[in-house]
Write a structure and sequence with these properties.
This protein has a single domain, classed as 3-Layer(aba) Sandwich (Aldehyde Dehydrogenase, Chain A, domain 1), CATH 3.40.605. The protein has ten helices and ten strands. Helix 9 links the parallel strand 8 and strand 9. The longest helix is centred in the middle third of the chain and has 21 residues. The radius of gyration is 20 Å and the shape is globular. This is Aldehyde dehydrogenase. Pfam families: Aldedh. Its EC number is 1.2.1.3.
């Protein structure tokens, strides 16, 4: 093969409603590796892009939350399958983004793929740990069952461009929520490439929407948006997190503000349950 070929550089785009638009503002910003070398230009999403992503997530919520838990699990497993086929690409992108050796980047990517499988397995079992038949003093059945919260804004971890990203997306959507994801500001490329996998994994358009750009600029309108039901502040710096909590309080959003997280550790069920609500039904016996 000739060494004189032109480099075919990749154009990274946002992921909104199952499509790949550029930012409506036309802006991009330079993404560099851990040594400051240019990697690509990523879209610099605007407040309008954030609002468009919320509209797409809300539109997708009815169908996704109404799908069977088994079907959602199948789709998450399909994501893992598709990632396995593009494993080499993600190892390269994670190594560049985080300044890791190939072996360490491989461990991160493999753990991320395994995490999709982990949460896929939980899809039809969540009700067993979050639901209950409640004892009541009367001739009634009293049953509690978990339901998704709705549209969730997810600020992806800044320090873990892929494993951390997957660890916030998968548990939010497997229970029926839809998501607007703000990729790590300094390392958005793995997230934007993940969008290409999601688009070919039977995931309905709008279930996951991925934006790149300045975290503070995108997160502010999401925290204040009346149609966003919850926000995960994993990727927010302490000062920004305080401001976003205040904005979220104006419309009673559920807020998850985790402490320092080891993304490689056993994920447990905390995030699986973080964006669920409980519906309790009373039903008379014998009817």
């Amino acid at each position: 093969m000739s060494d004189n070929r032109l480099s075919v550089l990749k154009t990274y785009k946002l992921f909104v409603g199952g499509k790949f638009p550029r930012s409506e503002s036309g802006r991009v910003y330079e993404v560099t590796d851990a040594k400051g070398r240019w990697l690509a230009n990523a879209p610099l999403a605007s407040r309008k892009d954030a609002r468009d992503a919320v509209v797409a997530a809300r539109k997708a919520f009815g169908g996704w939350s109404g799908a069977t838990a088994y079907n959602r699990g199948q789709i998450l497993y399909r994501v893992a399958e598709m990632l396995e086929g593009r494993r080499g690409q993600f190892i390269h992108e994670v190594a560049d983004a985080e300044g890791l050796s190939k072996s360490k980047a491989t461990a991160q990517v493999d753990a991320a793929i395994d995490r999709w499988v982990w949460y896929a397995g939980w899809s039809d079992k969540t009700a067993q740990i979050a639901g209950s038949a409640n004892p009541v003093a009367g001739p009634y059945f009293n049953l509690s069952s978990p339901e998704p919260t709705g549209v969730v804004a997810l600020l992806a971890p800044q320090e873990s461009s892929f494993l951390g990203l997957v660890s916030v997306i998968a548990p939010a959507i497997v229970t029926g929520n839809t998501a607007v994801v703000v990729a790590a500001e300094g390392a958005p490329l793995p997230a934007l490439s993940l969008a290409e996998v999601l688009a070919t994994s039977d995931l309905p358009g709008g279930v996951v929407n991925i934006l790149s750009g300045r975290t503070a600029e995108i997160a502010a309108p999401l925290a204040a948006h009346q149609d966003v039901n919850a926000i995960d502040l994993s990727g927010a710096e302490p000062e920004l997190a305080v401001e976003l909590e205040k904005a979220a309080a104006e419309n009673l959003k559920r807020v998850l503000r985790p402490q320092a997280v080891d993304w490689a550790a056993d994920p447990g069920t905390g995030r699986l349950l973080a964006f669920l609500e409980t519906k309790t039904v009373w039903h008379p016996m014998g009817v």
